[in-house]
Amino acid sequence: MERLVLVTFLLALMKEKVDSLKRGLRQATNASRSWSRFLLNCLAPVIAIAVSATGATGELSIGSKPSSSNPVRGSASDSSTTSTGVLNSSTSDSKSGKADPEALVGHASADVESTLGKPTGKLQTPEGALWLYADWRVQFGKEGQVLKVEKDQPVHLAKVDPRFSAAADAVSRAAAARAAADDEARIKAALPPVEDIRSVSNGGQEVDLPSLLAENKITIVDFYAEWCVPCQRLSPKLEQLAKDDPDVVLLKVDIVNWNTPVTQQFGIHSVPNVRVFNRSKAQVGDPTSDINLVMERIRQAKGS
Length: 304
Fold this sequence. Notes:
Elements (H helix, E strand, L loop, with lengths): L1 H26 L5 H25 L18 H20 L13 H8 L4 E5 L2 E5 L3 E5 L5 E6 L10 H29 L6 E4 L8 H4 L5 E7 L4 H16 L3 E7 L6 H6 L6 E5 L5 E6 L2 H13 L1
Parallel strand pairs: 5-7, 6-7
Antiparallel strand pairs: 1-2, 2-3, 3-4, 6-8, 8-9
Helix pairs in contact: 1-2, 3-4
């Protein structure tokens, strides 16, 4: 306002000087050209100031006075500047955390980006585009205008049903059991094949029995002698047990006679002398010559 008053004052002063100069020019028609140039040089700064002030404030003719009926009119750029200022204010408010995203209803996507920034995700709904932010959801209409702005709600996981946990545990245990069975099968497959029936005849010398017992199988050890008639009757029955049961092997050890080192090593005083060893190579029960007790010891060994 002060600037406008100053410009008006300068224009009025210039008008008075121009009028005065006109009168002086009419009276001094015989003045030299040098005097005219001097006057023009004097007026040049005043004219330049008036032209500059007129371009800055809008349309204002010399001698006119500002009034409420004739306000100073700005250009179209003033309106766009005002609109831009509003958006910039909204943007600055958003940066400072004071912007209200819910006030974006009816605005275009450019206004949303200037306020909330780039969305973290975009979806397409029957109503139109849906922009996703960390704390807000902006729903656009088919014409590209914001229909609604909603505060995004956090997702809470429901409490796990105990029945589901129990079922999951059962599945895990079953999977672990299957894996253990598969491992055992692979171990058995990797082991060298074991003969169902083996014989040791080394003249009655001592034997390293633990090294002769089968791995992961039940071993029947039959201490016998070629001249023993009961041994000849029991031997086919023991061999049949080994043939019928894949988990059982038969190891026959010839003692030769009563005075050999092997009889003293195992304290053998009678034959047949049959002993059963489980998969851990531990002896099950006492020595026997009864086929029924041998079968019972085999069942015990399988359960141990």
